[in-house]
Specification:
The chain has about 270 residues and is mainly beta. It is about 5% helix and about 45% strand. Strand 15 and strand 16 form a beta hairpin.
């Protein structure tokens, strides 16, 4: 009889607490029924969900804050949220970028990369001191421009340095390091002058997150942290399912599935 009572209690507890995820160490606090192209987050814990020309912004609890939409430039290819008060949206098909403020309002003139001499800019990201980096696929180098769109630093040609063309899929600056990821070969690290430092042998990464002392990335249904100090990865399994991307910020896990985004509170 006691065993039956315990079983009934467990059954009722499970279904009367639907927001409590059964995954060890995580508690599901919000599920957003959104089918999006990609997600990203900022250091304040805000979530950005991007679908074509739309950007939706939520706080760390999943409450809707604001939205952006501009069909003038096509789809948003990338959104750099390194500075939560000055975002950089890149529209690869039109070869342009725009700065947005923390209200998702346009904050500055349109950046026309072709007018700046970049016929094939495939990646852009923010840099320190109000500038930004551009990867030029034709020149095979990364160049840093200041707030007046003047080139201040650049890498050597990758063909000259590595003996081949690179086809990177992700680029971000964190502190004094620029990280350029090529899924097939690894993460190329440069200093803030564009000087090549090293390559991190992490392969197959589509998206990554640079935090203090670690690089976070998704590997299957695991979220892994690669230590920049001891050069080892430690991985935590995530709730099962077809996970497209996952990010960690401010004691939150943001997990993108094909038709929803789940927000978990981490211990």
């Amino acid at each position: 009889m006691l065993a039956i009572q315990i079983l009934i209690f467990s059954y009722l507890s499970y279904f009367t607490n639907p927001i409590q995820d059964r995954y060890e160490g995580l508690r599901n606090i919000k599920s957003l029924p959104k089918q999006v192209d990609f997600i990203t987050t900022d250091r304040l814990g805000n979530l950005y969900a991007i679908k074509k020309s739309f950007i939706w912004m939520y706080n760390k609890d999943g409450d809707s804050l604001r939205a952006f939409n501009s069909t003038q430039f096509g789809d948003v290819s990338y959104l750099d949220t390194t500075n939560p008060y000055k975002l950089l949206a890149f529209f690869k098909d039109y070869n342009v970028g725009i700065f947005l403020d923390n209200f998702l309002s346009e904050n500055g003139p349109l950046i026309d990369f072709q007018q700046l001499g970049f016929d094939q800019a495939t990646l852009v990201c923010l840099s320190r001191e109000n500038g930004f980096w551009v990867f030029d696929q034709i020149r095979q180098k990364v160049l840093r421009l200041d707030e007046n769109y003047k080139v201040t630093h650049e890498t050597v040609s990758f063909i000259q340095w590595f003996g081949r063309q690179l086809n990177p899929n992700f680029m971000i600056q964190y502190n004094n390091r620029l990280y350029l990821n090529e899924a097939e070969s690894g993460i190329y690290v440069f200093d803030h002058f564009g000087t090549y430092l090293k390559k991190i042998p992490l392969l197959g990464i589509k998206d990554m997150q640079v935090l203090e002392g670690v690089i976070g990335y998704l590997e299957g249904t695991n979220y892994c942290n690669y230590s920049l100090l001891d050069f080892e990865s430690k991985c935590d399994s995530l709730p099962k399912g077809e996970i497209i991307n996952a990010r960690k910020e401010k004691k939150r896990f943001y997990i993108q599935y094909p038709k929803k985004i789940d927000i978990y509170e981490a211990n």
